[in-house]
Write a structure and sequence with these properties.
19 strands; Rossmann fold; about 30% helix; about 400 residues; alpha/beta; eight-stranded mixed β-sheet; five-stranded parallel β-sheet; 2 domains
Length: about 400
């Protein structure tokens, strides 16, 4: 993701069994373009060697507060001032307690006390330790500090043989939380509903009308809108995608269900990314239709036009954004759709051919507003989503 490219990230590793995941975190962040350096407690070195993290990060790993030759330049202060952000992963109950009370008895805790950088704290420990009153009080106190951001642990089987909350989240989840911490918040205070994926219109219990949409673009938009500060509800047709973190997801199947779900949620901004079926069978058979020698010509009827209906309603969102999936005359047809449906903006993308938007990891789009058009060249959908969300933030700011 371009957000982390060139960012200076300090990974602070403490002494828990989850310290082995530090190697995976370094790999994840360096692959995203970040410049990663590591500090470790003495206990962390019992679980994973500094050499491992040095090789993966390309930088020496520091573990000692009083290093010969370093403290003449106040080495721990230099380390504290270097990063754009710090990740404490895993964060043990011991280090969390020290952070709450401002203790600084080793290099890692001294750096945490001396830095002005935002700190992402990732607790990982035995579930009883996590839920202990003292640990919960410490976490509550840390949540009140603007500099500190907490990522809740996952639940599951723990190294101690117990099960429950206390697992360190996977590196991609930590990366997502880091990006959210670093991103500006132009959508702060904005409630946004985003639709995604296809709809299915059933002829019988096993046959339906649908389309090749995978929902990737809509899910990417939901993720980036949250990163940029919005309160997001994702109304999703059937997909195989993992729900975005900290996003309310309403699962639907048909166009009518999608319309009703969207109407049930207050939205300052509605972004209709979903590929909604235009037609539905006039009736759905109760049981599977058996094969026969004759043809089958089921009657079809139009589905609800969600954008047009909502645009004309008294509860119209402040900003209404559509998507146009076209195979020719992309900008021309998209602009006509924007005007006919009364939209504030529309995102036009080419879904035809092998490089079309459906199912691919990349996309290229045209952002169209009444007086402007911006072409975004082909790039990862998550990066396209960020630019779309910033564009939406600008349009919405004009309408406030």
């Amino acid at each position: 993701m371009t957000v982390l490219k060139g960012r200076k990230i300090l990974l602070a590793v403490t002494g828990g069994i989850a310290a082995y995941k530090a190697a995976l975190i370094v790999r994840q962040l360096t692959a995203a373009g970040a410049d990663v350096r590591c500090v470790m407690t003495a206990s962390a070195c019992e679980f994973i060697t500094p050499l491992t993290l040095e090789v993966l990060s390309g930088h020496p790993v520091v573990t000692e507060l009083f290093r010969p030759g370093a403290e003449s330049q106040i080495g721990h202060i230099e380390i504290a001032r270097w990063p754009d952000a710090i990740i404490v992963a895993p964060a043990t109950a011991n280090v969390i307690a020290k952070m709450r009370y401002g203790l600084a008895d080793d290099l890692l805790t001294t750096v945490l006390l001396a830095t002005n950088a935002p700190i992402l704290v990732c607790p990982a420990m035995n579930t009883q330790m996590f839920y202990h009153t003292t640990t919960q009080e410490n976490l509550t106190a840390l949540r009140q500090r603007p500099q500190i951001h907490l990522l809740d642990p996952d639940a599951g089987d723990l190294a101690c043989g117990e099960a429950g909350a206390g697992r360190l989240p996977d590196p991609d989840v930590i990366e997502d939380a880091l990006i959210e911490m670093l991103e500006p918040k132009p959508l702060h205070g904005v409630s946004m509903v985003i639709s995604a994926g296809p709809t299915r219109e059933h002829f019988d219990p096993v046959r339906f009308l649908s389309n090749p949409s995978t929902g990737k673009m809509g899910y990417a938009l939901a993720t980036k809108a949250r990163h940029l500060g919005a309160q997001v509800t994702l109304v999703s047709g059937p997909t195989s995608l993992r729900p975005p973190r900290n996003v309310q997801v309403l699962g639907v199947s048909t166009a009518q269900q999608m319309y009703e779900a969207i109407q049930s949620v207050h939205a300052d901004v509605l972004v209709m990314t979903a590929a909604v079926a235009d037609y539905t069978p006039a009736s759905c058979l109760e049981h599977k239709r058996k094969k026969s020698d004759g043809g089958w010509q089921p009657e079809l009827q139009r589905t609800v036009d969600i954008l047009t209906t909502i645009s004309a309603s008294e509860h119209r969102p402040r900003t209404l954004i559509g998507f146009a999936a076209e195979t020719q005359h992309i900008e021309e047809y998209a602009r006509k759709k924007m005007q006919s449906k009364g939209l504030d903006g529309i995102v036009a993308n080419d879904v035809g051919g092998p490089n079309g938007a459906f199912g691919n990891e990349e996309n290229q789009v045209v952002l169209i507003s009444p007086n402007d058009a911006q072409f975004l060249e082909s790039q990862a959908k998550i990066d396209i989503a960020r630019k779309i969300c910033l564009w939406i933030a600008s349009l919405d700011e004009q309408r406030r």
